[in-house]
Automatic annotation (TrEMBL):
Native source organism of the sequence: Leuconostoc kimchii (strain IMSNU 11154 / KCTC 2386 / IH25)
The organism's taxonomic lineage, starting at the top: Bacteria, Bacillati, Bacillota, Bacilli, Lactobacillales
Protein name, as recorded: Cation-transporting ATPase, E1-E2 family
Topology of this chain in the membrane: Multi-pass membrane protein
Membrane-spanning ranges: 52-77, 83-102, 254-273, 279-305, 673-693, 699-719, 740-767, 779-798, 818-837, 849-869
Cellular component GO terms held in the UniProt record: plasma membrane
Main location: membrane
InterPro entries, sorted: ATPase_P-typ_cation-transptr_C, ATPase_P-typ_cation-transptr_N, ATPase_P-typ_cyto_dom_N, ATPase_P-typ_P_site, ATPase_P-typ_TM_dom_sf, ATPase_P-typ_transduc_dom_A_sf, ATPase_P-type_domA, HAD-like_sf
């Protein structure tokens, strides 16, 4: 029989699971052996040869390879035996793409490793204990503990469902939540669709209301989701971030420039009667060398490193583009509880309505406080365990505070034995209250409602409302969160009791004032954000007085800033909200739906807004925000799934750190563009100008490819490890869609490329015209000089772009791999030019010491000029 048709008892017995204690360790092992674990089969990896083919799949590279093969064949036919150059071309192109693949593979692996941090954990009952386990470790027969906001890890038959609603759109396409019922039955013949199987919860769906328990009836590929998992593993295309996409576009644009340059070079060569094969290879090599293919790889590495760093700082990136968006964020809308505050709630004060008495908990728990707290305590969902002799509380922090305060006199269990639980309507942030119903020791029933003061006040019939209002305001001003406790007793329980029935004719019991101090990091982080041009706003379900008191303490609310409540917000038109949005710093008593209005209004001002959220109802807002941030410690699975970033420490300060990382990524990408394009453009300049001046082709194809691979490639990869040498949080954020070349980058590249071009052309001219050390000037000498000068200037340039201050201000330890790579590239260049074998392979010749002195001098000129310009005009070289 299908799992959903089985009765509760039958489900429990057929899986031999204890409905209270869950499976024991032996059963877990046995079921895992027999039925497997809960993971999906993962997709196969691309084989390396395919990756190489894909990476070679670029028009200029293909033309170059074809040209090289043609030249090998024609050399064979001619019988001259000069294969080297063509073979070297093929070799360099292949090494280049292997290098890119290896680096990209590394970056992807580290990103994949981070995905593991992002695994869903599920609550199960095993051996009588609740345990949080990896979703993959769930086995058949496991007893799932389902809470509001849980993600369901496997298909399971409900054995208990309290107000349980599941959102099953991932499976059924239906976006409205489905009401679940553990006791429902089905007609034997009736066809029951997935969406109608209300006795079940399914893998891949989420709980949006209520709570319950369920026995796992299918795991892994046997789940309903598993059957469509085949489709899932196919849709594994990597999504590019906006920055990556812009760089791909940039690469394409440069390709056009490269192709145009190649055509001009060909034309010039032919008109000057050069050897056709040679000029063709030169032109295509130029095109290949000029396109910065390594740029996207370096960006992926930079992103991967940024993501790793963020993970170390407690921010787990779920969607890569968020890293970049963080860099442009100028508004952070943060929850109060747990993010700006410690979420260590402690009951401070209790007011007793009937006795009109205010108790300070620090003075001990008097009878009046006990009256109020005992009712508040039984109206919670807190479980208490003793671990190593200590009481461990599991539940909402507000509720834990109540139970813990009362525990000095009586435990929750003892109280519940006196007042057995009959029914409950759970808390949610929209209703801002909850009600539990108990058998009354003195006969009949008692319904206890606790919740926000302003929500309960209109519902309360008996009690001193004026006094209570005054107490509520005082508590709020002292930054206390206020819980209002009300009750109603009745003798008969109707057949179908409703929430309205429980919550009528209520009597005020008292008010509880709970303190939740701000985190020590919050005030400095708010200040740091402000200096960085990022406004922090507080969005909270709490009362406006409480919220303002905390906001003032951490400087979110300053002179001139305004507060607004959810009901005031409801009265504002979108236009009015837009006009004033910049002034509101605190939004109190808002519901999760209000968050969307706040986001949209900021977005209409062209702001980039990051928003935090932890509850089920926060999911739409997390999706609507430019960066949705969820909480790893206290958040629900639903919120985590909807978010771009998870804070593993729930701490506001982490968001500010992540913003600085995001900005850093952008700066590193700009540095990389500066490095690669300056050198590449100078290559075009050198070849074109030399040919226009009738100096012949000044560099061989292998020279261009070598510079691309070694002089640009080696230091370039190390740039992704470059630390942030400037304080990126001293300036306002960049506007969305700012050009990659904005803020003077294009000008810097133009200056650099011209300097490199001038010194290389000077080297060519000297090589062709000046007799030195007994060596007559000739084309070979000039090629050797041009090659070494271009290679060295390019390598030295990596030091120029690190900071807009002198290169000597940057220590070796800042990025040893960059210095080492530059050194290695220099050594390889010198080796190629000096060792007779490589000399002849690269078509170079032996040159005199005088030539070497000129080479070194010329190669240093750009760096010296740039150092000088930095001294007089540092803004020109802003990074
Ligand atoms: P945020 O995390 O967005 O800052 P919050 O956590 O302060 O918001 P909620 O948890 O939605 O906001 O709480 C709003 C109000 O609901 C509180 O001020 C309190 O009066 C009441 N409340 C909170 N928790 C409970 C609960 N467990 N039972 C009954 N009422 C509660």
């Amino acid at each position: 029989m299908k799992a959903y048709r089985k009765g509760i008892e039958e489900t429990i017995s057929s899986h031999a699971v204890d409905s209270q204690k869950g499976l024991d360790a032996k059963q877990v092992n046995y079921n895992r052996e027999k039925f497997g674990n809960n993971s999906f089969e993962t997709k196969k990896k691309e084989p390396i040869w395919r990756k190489i083919l894909i990476s070679l799949n670029d028009v200029a590279t293909i033309i170059l390879l074809i040209a090289a093969v043609i030249s090998i064949v024609s050399t064979y036919i001619e019988g001259t035996g000069h294969y080297f150059e063509s073979l070297l071309i093929v070799g360099i192109v292949i090494i280049n793409s292997i290098l890119a693949i290896v680096q990209e593979g590394k970056a992807e692996n580290s990103l994949a490793a981070l995905q593991n941090l992002n695994r869903t954990q599920v609550k199960v009952m095993r051996d009588g204990e609740t345990a949080l386990i990896d979703a993959d470790d769930v086995v058949l027969g496991d007893l799932l503990i389902i809470e509001n906001g849980s993600a369901i890890a496997a298909d399971a038959r409900l054995i208990e469902a309290i107000e349980l609603q599941a959102e099953e759109s991932a499976l059924t396409g239906e976006s409205l939540p489905v009401e679940k019922d553990a006791h429902a039955t089905f007609e034997p013949e009736a066809q029951v669709n997935l969406g109608e199987r209300v006795t079940m919860v399914y893998r891949g769906t989420t709980i949006v209301n209520g709570h319950g328990k369920a026995v796992v009836t299918a795991v892994g590929m046997a789940t309903e989701m598993g059957t469509i998992a085949g489709l899932l593993s196919k849709e594994s295309k990597t999504v590019l971030t906006p920055l990556q996409r812009r760089l791909v576009q940039l690469g394409k644009n440069i390709s056009w420039i490269a192709i145009a340059a190649a055509i001009v070079v060909m034309g010039l060569g032919i008109s000057q009667g050069m050897d056709l094969k040679h000029i063709f290879l030169t032109a295509v090599s130029l095109a290949v060398a000029v396109v910065p293919e390594t740029l996207p790889v370096i960006v992926t590495m930079t992103l991967a490193l940024g993501v790793q760093k963020m993970a170390r700082k407690h921010a787990i990136v779920r969607r890569l583009p968020a890293v970049e968006t963080l860099g442009t964020t100028n508004v952070i809308a943060s929850d109060k509880t747990g993010t700006l505050t410690q979420n260590r709630m402690t009951v401070r004060k209790v007011w007793h309505n009937e006795k009109n008495h205010l108790s300070l908990i620090a003075d001990g728990l008097d009878d009046m406080a006990q009256d109020v707290l005992s009712l508040a305590t039984i109206s919670t969902n807190v479980s208490v365990k003793t671990v190593d002799g200590e009481q461990v509380y599991d539940g909402l922090p507000t509720e834990v505070a109540l139970v813990r305060a009362m525990a000095a006199k009586k435990s929750r269990d003892d109280l519940l034995n006196m007042y057995p639980l009959i029914d409950q309507i759970p808390f949610n942030s929209t209703k801002k209250r909850m009600t539990t119903v108990h058998r009354n020791p003195s006969g009949g029933y008692i319904a206890i409602t606790k919740g926000a003061f302003d929500v309960l006040l209109p519902m309360i019939q008996h009690g001193d409302k004026d006094k209570a209002t005054a107490i509520n305001t005082t508590f709020g001003r002292e930054a206390l969160r206020v819980l209002t406790i009300a009750q109603r007793t009745f003798t008969d329980m109707p057949e179908n009791p409703t929430q309205a029935f429980y919550e009528q004719d209520m009597t005020l019991v008292g008010l509880v004032g709970i303190i939740d101090p701000p985190r020590v990091e919050s005030a400095p982080a708010v200040e740091k954000a402000r200096l960085a041009g990022v406004k922090t706003i507080m969005i909270t379900g709490d009362h406006v007085e409480t919220a303002s008191a905390i906001a003032r303490e951490i400087n979110i609310l300053q002179d001139g800033d305004q507060t607004i409540t959810g009901s005031e917000l409801a009265k504002l038109s979108d236009e009015a909200l837009d006009q004033n949005i910049q002034n509101y710093s605190v939004y109190a008593r808002v519901t999760p739906t209000d968050k969307i209005r706040i986001i949209k209004s900021w977005q209409r001002q062209d702001a980039t807004i990051a928003m935090t959220g932890d509850g089920v109802n926060d999911a739409p807002a997390l999706k609507a925000a430019d960066v949705g941030i969820s909480m790893g410690e206290t958040g629900t699975d639903v919120a985590r799934d909807a978010s771009d970033i998870i804070l593993t420490d729930d701490n506001f300060a982490t968001i500010v750190d992540a913003i600085s990382e995001g900005r850093g990524v952008y700066i590193k990408v700009r540095k990389t563009i500066n490095f690669l394009l300056s050198a590449n453009i100078s290559e075009i300049l050198v070849i074109l100008i030399a040919m226009i001046l009738g100096w012949g082709s000044p560099l061989l194809p292998v020279h261009l490819l070598f510079i691309n691979l070694v002089s640009d490639g080696l230091p370039g990869f190390a740039l992704s490890r470059e630390p942030l040498l400037t304080n990126v949080m001293n300036e306002p954020p960049m506007a969305k869609n700012t050009s990659l070349f904005a803020h003077g980058l294009a000008r810097q590249i133009a200056i650099n490329a011209s300097l490199f071009g001038i010194v290389t052309l000077a080297a060519i001219w000297i090589g062709q015209n000046v007799t030195l050390g007994g060596l007559t000037a000739n084309a070979n000498v000039s090629q050797t000089m041009a090659f070494v000068v271009l290679s060295l200037t390019s390598i030295f340039h990596v030091f120029n772009i690190r900071s807009n201050k002198s290169l000597f201000t940057v220590k070796y330890s800042a990025n040893p791999s960059l210095v080492n790579m530059a050194l290695l590239a220099t050594l390889i260049t010198l080796a190629v030019a000096l060792i007779p074998l490589t000399q002849s392979l690269f078509g170079l010749t032996f040159i005199s010491l005088g030539h070497w002195a000129i080479i070194i001098g010329l190669s240093l000129v750009p760096t010296i000029v740039i150092e000088f310009l930095k001294m007089i005009q540092p803004n020109l070289f802003k990074v």
